[in-house]
Amino acid sequence: MRIVSGIQTTGNLHLGNYLGAIKNWVAMQDGLADGDEALFFLADLHSLTVAIPAAERAATTIEMAAVLIASGIDPDRSILFNQARVPAHAELSWILQGTARMGWLNRMTQWKDKAGKNREGASVGLFTYPVLQAADILAYQGTHVPVGDDQKQHLELARDIATKFNLDFDVDLFTLPEPYISPAAPRIMSLRDGTAKMSKSDPSEMSRINLADSDETIAQKFRKAKTDPEPLPDDPALLDARPEAKNLVTIFAALDDTSVPQVLAQFAGQGFGAFKPALADLAIAKLSPIRERLTVLMEDRDAVSGALEKGADKARALAAPTLLAAQRATGLQV
Ligand code: TYM
């Protein structure tokens, strides 16, 4: 088993990233058997698709790495690194650009959403973003890719690219990766709108809980979260028409490692006046230890950078044979 996943180094890590991805990364890391590897990386090359000043990009990479470590990613057990330190990602990405088709990339909903109406003005990197993502995974022969629901389409594309490359060059080189989407929290929604994803790029800070938020901020954001006036039902199916209520119950269940029916069994008949403080207390209990570890880690940024360098050494060694095989398959190397 080769677990591979990444996170783009733009903005703050939020509860959606944590419940949809990072919490599962930690669980998968903790369950690794002998011979398995888990690779987690900061997607700083992907962050080039967003205009960010250089100093901020570098600082964000270190801060996000520290959040991952504070959340339980152990650089001695997992291979933790930033993409830019491992040139195989960019090299393989270019090779795979000969395989990916314009039509495939044109269908990517993330491209359509992010480019919007201004396609002529969008960067080429935003368009080819999913090819780099495919290279991230295929360079390591990733078998399991723990991601939120929003990355499913990119994973399908990675499989299509792998299949076409193997076929075009008549090789059995790339393993087809399987997405692993957390059943508990496939898509955490905005606290302001239960039909929009919780996202780093939402202009409203009140829409998301950041992993670095103080206890007071967490409590305030849940207090102000959009809800409806009805009490919580006992039947989970009744939440389907109440997206904000459903989201808060889902967050509670995911944070507490229980299920939506169990949360409803506890809170059915109660309104949000009672549920929101209980949710805020739970979130604070789970997130404040992460924030405290983060504060300590941020006192020594060089140590975090050193951990990334060590991870990059291991990642370079793991990617090298696959990159060479891809170069041989395409006649770039004999
Ligand atoms: P990114 O940085 O947007 O998000 C990182 C991870 O968090 C998940 N996620 C969510 N899960 C549930 N609810 C949400 N509201 C939510 N928001 C984000 C994402 O699904 C993701 O798993 N393109 C990727 C980064 C990437 C990558 C890769 C991932 C680059 N290369 C290779 C996997 C494999 C991205 O932008 O994720």
Order of helices and strands: EHEHEHHHHEHEHHHHH
Oligomeric state of the chains in view: single chain
**What would the principal axes of the Cα set say about the shape?**
globular
Unreliable segments of 5+ consecutive residues: none
The CATH top-level class label of the largest domain: Alpha Beta
Count of structural domains: 2
N-end to C-end Cα span: 30 Å
Give the neighbour order of strands across the main sheet.
Answer: 1-2-3
Number of helices: 12
Strand portion: 5-15%
Indicate the radius of gyration in whole angstroms.
21 Å
Secondary structural class: mainly alpha
Q: What is the CATH superfamily label of the largest domain?
A: HUPs
Number of E-state strands: 5
Q: Could you walk me through the main structural features you see in this protein, from its secondary elements to its overall organization?
A:
This protein is mostly helical and 334 residues long. It has 2 domains: 2-187 and 301-329, 3-Layer(aba) Sandwich (Rossmann fold); 205-295, Tyrosyl-Transfer RNA Synthetase (Orthogonal Bundle). The protein has 12 helices and 5 strands. The protein has a 3-stranded parallel sheet. Strands 4-5 form a two-stranded parallel ribbon. Strand 2 (37-43), helix 2 and strand 3 form a beta-alpha-beta unit. The longest helix is centred in the C-terminal third of the chain and has 29 residues, at 301-329. The structure holds tryptophanyl-5'AMP (TYM). Tryptophanyl-5'AMP (TYM) binds next to strand 1, helix 1, helix 6 and strand 4. Catalyzes the attachment of tryptophan to tRNA(Trp). One of its GO terms (biological process) is tryptophanyl-tRNA aminoacylation. Its EC number is 6.1.1.2. InterPro entries: aa-tRNA-synth_Ic (IPR002305), Rossmann-like_a/b/a_fold (IPR014729), Trp-tRNA-ligase (IPR002306), Trp-tRNA-ligase_bac-type (IPR024109), Trp-tRNA_synthetase (IPR050203).
